[in-house]
Structures are given as structure tokens and as C-alpha cells.
Amino acid sequence: MKKVLILIIVVFSASFYFSNIHLSFNETPLQEVLQKLEEASGSIILTKTNTLGKITKEINTLDLESALDIILYSTDYEYKKIGHNLYLVGDFDLIIQGSVQNATEINFESLEVTKISNILMLLNQRVRRVPNSNSIILFGKDGLSFEILNLFNFLEDNAGENKVITYSSSHKISKNVYDYLIFLETSYKSSPLENQDAIGFLESNFSLLTDLEKVEFYESFDVNESDLNLKENINNYYLVEKDGEYSVLVTSRFNLENLINDEKTKNVSHIKTSFGVSYQFYSNEIMSNISLQFNKSYFDISFDFNNNSKFAYATELKDKVRIGAILKNEEDQINISFLLDDYEDFNNFGLYGILQINSQIENLRSILVDINELSYDLVATKTYTFGDKQTIELSLYPGIGLSISKKDQATIYFNFGAQYSFPFQKSAALFSYLYHQSLHTISLSIEF
What superkingdom heads the lineage (predicted)? Predict the structure, then answer.
């Protein structure tokens, strides 16, 4: 009996002696216990928010994971290894587990879910995408779930519209997660996180590290210089500390025109129609016109009360390059023009290049051979927006052109155009002025 007792004492003493971690706790706060384990193991232990409790345990183990098993036994918490010598302690998937009975499936027709994957990642605690479908499941029936539902309803109703949306959400984090992100960022001030290690760590473990608090969105009417540097569908992360509480604020900006379901785009035609009237000062000519934009094609018919008419057609040849023709009937003469234009978008303005070849029709041969004039216009475009609820637009079009005619020498000329757009609920009123090759023209039109 003595030998057995001695053997037990020796084994117990040996296990204690060779243990890497031997700690004793008596009604010790859990956060303090985890800090002691960090110091003893040389690892980093992060926690979710509100990881509370008191521990009374004796720890004698060879490794940290065994110690965590002992510490967290009979608590509501568990641990996950999220990196090399990096652990996270908390109650995972708590919200979804408590909301399964209040789950709602949402099916989208216009919105393409895969195009907002960066937003779904942020809402992972409340939203799950249904595999192999264009649907999601929303968990919960509380105020936060209502905010998320409003977001998805708005996206579904407006997908395909040319509207810029700014999304923001607030996510609660613990102090040690906040401190660890600051450590990874090294030189954090108040701008979004820039260090790729910090961003990668946060995005890889976002639903584990954070607790969703609030979801907001609003339509961006006035885009300032700082907004121009924000790429669409890219999340920007800000660390926030206020009154001893810590959170991550996430913002993202995207154009709803790019979120439409590709299958719906194939089956739905986008049509714009306008009716207008124009006046040319030099000739005292008043013209009425009807134009139709059908997907990537454009038609325009203009006429006056003296049997003069014009028909224009243009279509997109490839991305940002169009080809077209203009047929004019003036004083019993028929003129035809061929157009080729391209567009480049820069940070603060756009630039059009327009090549036009003019010919007068007498017979089929003259169209191909007898070219009367060739011109090339280079036009810059800049649009300014005003207003909050209704976006009023003022667009300016300064430019320069070169004309080469069979009768005259080559001439260089300056152009200028301006357009004022005032929106209504489903239409817009457009007032335009154009100065082109010494001719002044004003026009008024309604676009649907």
C-alpha cells in the first residue's frame, strides 16, 4: 500500500514538475485568467465582447489548448485557433442559434447576390446565402434584422439604376482585439486600416471577432474628392473607441447599376425616350425632335415645318466606342455623315473624340468617293451635381475641333456646350446650349 501511495505521489509530482503551465485560480475573473495563460504560454488570446465569468481551477498541463479546455469547461465559452499561437475565446454563433425559428428566406430577381459578397461577409452573423441560388436567409425579427431587411429591399428595388449608395455598419469588438489591430497597423491614426496584415486578419475572422450592432445606407448625391478615392465594392475599416467601448466601423460605396442580375439584363430592355424642340440662331430654324435609346443603340428624328428633316443612328461598337450615321434632307439636298466616337473616363472629367465624314448624295458612287468634309472634335465633359433629395446636374462640354473641306483650307475652331438637368420622379427636363462651328443652338427636352 505504501508503494502504491509513493508511486502516485511520484507521478503527480513528475507531471507537475514537467508541466509548462501550472497555475491556480480562485474566483478569478476570466479575463485575468486568460491574461495569465498568455504570459505562461507565450501565445496571444483574444476574446469576443462580454466574455465574462469567474474561474476556480487548478491548471497543470503541458500545452495551452489543454489549459483552455480545463478553464472553459462548464462555461458558455469555447476557443478557436485563428492563427499561429493566436486564439480567440467567446460564444460563437450565439445570435443565429437563438434566431433559427425566426428565419426568413429572401429570393432576389433584380439583385445579383454574388456582386455584394463584401457586404454579406459583414452581415454573416445574421445572413446566410443559400447555396447554388440567388437567395439569402435572414435570421431574427428584431430592430437590427429590420435594418438589414430594409437594405436588401432597397437593393432589390433599385438594382440596375444609376444610383451611388454608401453602406455603413458598426461592429462591436473587445479591447484586446482593438489593441491587436492597432499593433498590426503600427501607425494607425484616424484613416481606414491600410496594413494588409491587419485587414487580412480582420476579414478572415470577421464574424468571429465582431458583433453586429447597426446597419445604415444612404444615396450619395454629392461626391467629394475623398469619396473619389474610394473604390466601389471595397470595404473600408475604421477603429473606433468611445467611452471605454470599442468597435469597427465599415463603409463601402457601390453603384446599383452594377448590381443587377446578369440573367435579368439579358431579358430586359432599357429604353429611354425624349421629346424636344431646338432653335438655331443663325438660320432662325426651329426643329422638333424625338429620340429613343434602346439598350446600346440610339435613334433620333428631327424635323421642321419646311420639309427639312434629319435622321441619326448610333450604336456601341465595343466598350465606350460608338459608330453611327446622320442623314439630312435640306432644301431637296440629301447629306450623309458617318460618325465614329470614343470616350475615356478620367478621375475628374471625361473626354470624347468624335470623327465625322460628310458627303452629299447624288448617286451611290458619290457616297463612297465624293467626300465634302472631314472633321474631328475633342470634347471634355464635367458634370456637377447639386441638391440632396433631387439631384440637379450641370454638365459642361468645352472642346476644340479641326475641319478639312474640299473647298476651304483646314480650320481650327472652338466648341462649347452646357446642359442643365432637373429630375422629376420618372423623368427629367433638359435645357441645353451648344456653340459648334460658329453656330449657336438652344434646346429644351423632356426625357423619360
Answer: Bacteria
* Domain boundaries, given as residue ranges, for the chain: 2-91, 95-263, 269-447
Element (H, E) at 4: helix 2-18
286, amino acid identity: I
Which CATH code, of 3.40.50.970, 3.40.190.10, 3.30.40.10, 3.55.50.30, is assigned to 2-91? 3.55.50.30
Residues 115-127: tens digit of each pLDDT? 999 999 999 888 9
Determine contact, residues 126/137, Cβ cutoff 8 Å.
no
Task: Give the length of the chain.
Answer: 448
CATH architecture of the region 269-447: Beta Barrel (2.40)
- Alpha carbon distance 123, 120 (integer Å): 5
Question: Are residues 163 and 257 in contact, defined by beta-carbon separation less than 8 angstroms?
Answer: yes
Kindly tell me the burial class for residue 427, based on how many C-beta atoms sit within 10 Å of its own C-beta (0-12, 13-18, 19 or more): middle
Q: Is the pTM of this model over 0.70?
A: no
How far is the C-alpha of 118 from the C-alpha of 215, rounded, in Å? 14
CA distance 242 to 24: 35
Pairing of strands 245-255, 164-173: antiparallel
Residue 158 contacts by C-beta under 8 Å, 6 or more apart in sequence?
Answer: 256
**Residue 121 pairs with which residues in a beta bridge?**
none
What does the alpha-carbon distance between residue 344 and residue 347 come to, in Å, rounded to a whole number? Answer: 10
Element (H, E) at 218: strand 211-219
